[in-house]
Amino acid sequence: MVITAKQEALVVSSWNEMKDDAPTFALKFFLRLFEIIPSAAKRFSFLRDSNMPLDKNPKLKAHAMGVFVMTCEAATQLRKTGRVNVGANTSVQHLASVHFKAGVADVHFEVLKFALLETIKEAVPYMWSEELKEAWSESYDHLVVAIKNEM
User: Fold this and answer.
1) Angle, to 10 degrees, between the axis of helix 22-36 and the axis of helix 106-123?
2) What's the chain's average pLDDT?
């Protein structure tokens, strides 16, 4: 089994709480990444030559939203499908190819996990617990393993 029923319930209920304000949390998710690894911004072609502040960049906002929603939706589907499903608009193979070409390393995935967990903690502080953290960690780890297996 990919994740337990209890972990699935925690992921689904917390994601349902965050959905309505997903654009805000998505941007915070990426801004946290760039706070920790400022050079990560250079891995995004649409940010390399931009002088626009990151928090105002519409391309970053759109990308962050796509990644955040895909990550959260994939996490909610894990137990049901038994595999990582990243949606109809992309594939794990495509994600792996993009991440490989960008030179994404293990450390980047770890920092992104930290940023995701901190964002969730901020988004739903009244739900935050070690169990919720573990549920999201497990779900994220499955997504990363699926991507890395294709890299």
Assistant:
1) 140
2) 84
SS (H, E, C) the chain: CCCCHHHHHHHHHHHHHHHHHHHHHHHHHHHHHHHHCHHHHHHCHHHHCCCCCHHHCHHHHHHHHHHHHHHHHHHHHHHHHCCCCCCCCCCHHHHHHHHHHCCCCHHHHHHHHHHHHHHHHHHCCCCCCHHHHHHHHHHHHHHHHHHHHHC
- The pLDDT value recorded for residue 96 is 62
**Tens digit of pLDDT for each residue in 3-31?**
888 998 998 899 999 999 989 999 999 99
Answer with the residue of higher pLDDT: 133 or 110: 133
C-alpha 40, offset from chain centre: 15
pLDDT band at 86 (very low <50, low <70, confident <90, very high): low
Q: How many whole angstroms separate alpha carbon 86 and alpha carbon 149?
A: 15
Tokens in use for 75? 């996490």
Domain edges within the chain: 5-150
Fold of the CATH domain 5-150 = Globin-like (1.10.490)
